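Extended Data, panel c. Modelled sequence:
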Amino acid sequence: MHMLKFFLSIFVAAWFVVSAPEISQAGSLLQDLENALMCKCDDKCGKVLINCTCSTSDKTRAKFTKLLDSGLTVDQIIKSQVDKYGETVLSAPTKFGFNLTAWVMPFVALIAGGVGVRKIINSWIGKKQKPDSEDVPEEKSATPGKYSKRLQDELDGIEL
């Protein structure tokens, strides 16, 4: 009797080890599917399916689980949903055609904004900087200031 329990426990443990990857793979496929699609509930919540908690999302998850168990791939299920609801069911736009602009424009705007901010900062810094003594003629560098030409004329007019 003791040997029978031992072999039974080894059989059950081996069954769990063998079936665990299938269970985790099915869960992973369902998560991939939920991340790729939006919830199509009556409330029009606008959430990705994996984040939605409404009753429609629970029904959709059950339906997708049955479809995955029947042998369909994630791509086939996504294609069937796009055929049924259109591209609005996708959580991210496709990466071809006009939808490519949705991927490219944020980066273009970020770069353009950075260039614009840099030009503004450079113009502010340029106004505040005083010219170096190398760039200014020697006679002007000796008497800097707003009234330097008038002061130089007055000094030239004084006889020693």
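Residues 2-92 form a domain with the Helicase, Ruva Protein; domain 3 fold (CATH 1.10.8). This feature is highlighted in the accompanying rendering.
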